[in-house]
Design brief:
Layout lengths: L8 H5 L2 E5 L4 H14 L4 E5 L13 H18 L5 E12 L2 E12 L4 E5 L3 E2 L2 H8 L4 H9 L9 H6 L6 H12 L1 H4 L5
Parallel strand pairs: 1-2, 1-3
Antiparallel strand pairs: 3-4, 4-5, 4-6
Helix pairs in contact: 2-7, 4-5
Length: 189
């Protein structure tokens, strides 16, 4: 007679801890929602101020990815007891003379598995591009052009430019879920 595998009830009931390499409430909230959508179980998601090791405004795909990876690795170094570490880094890049914005997401787990994903991209208006090219970080440029305060901890450029049709939390959340694919389909990765 075949008996079902004995479940480890204690493990199933234990809350998994996810550390986001940022105190930005949008990044923490999007990570929290993504983990709850992707997995059954209980999760506690906390943010931690860690450095990205890249420019304040990352430029290009490689630097932005490096910033996300560094945030995840630095969060792991500071709080190694967690189950997962998440780095989210927004960046800009020039494409055919126009500036696009996007973010990279990196997820690490205790077994050294890495999940990676990139958000969709969108192009920025000239007024913002001029400020970013003069050395201003995208969030500051948004605040200046749209007369706001701390928009990067709110709906950000994507929310402002779409009149809220694309919510920044959902924008990041989708990318976090995509970065979780190696953990969702463990047998394939």
């Amino acid at each position: 007679m075949n008996f079902p595998k004995r479940r480890n009830i204690e493990e199933e009931l234990r809350q998994k801890l996810i550390i986001v390499g940022s105190k930005n409430p949008v990044k923490i909230s999007s990570t929290d929602t993504a983990f709850h959508q992707a997995f059954a179980g209980s999760f506690l998601v906390e943010g931690l101020n860690v450095g990205s090791g890249v420019s304040e405004q990352p430029y290009g795909d490689a630097e932005t990815f490096e910033g996300a990876m560094n945030r995840a690795k630095n969060a792991k170094a500071v709080f190694p007891e967690a189950d997962y570490w998440v780095g989210i880094e927004g960046g800009v890049d020039l494409v055919a003379g126009e500036m696009q914005a996007f973010a990279w997401v990196v997820v690490l787990d205790k077994s050294e598995k890495i999940g990676k994903s990139k958000t969709s991209t969108f192009f920025l208006p000239k007024a913002i591009v001029d400020l970013v090219e003069s050395g201003m970080e995208l969030g500051e440029a948004d605040d200046k052009v749209f007369e706001r305060t701390n928009s990067k901890q709110g709906n950000g450029a994507v929310g402002i430019l779409t009149n809220g049709a694309v919510d920044r939390k959902e924008y990041y959340q989708q990318a976090v879920i995509l970065a979780l694919i190696p953990f969702i389909k463990e047998d394939l990765f």
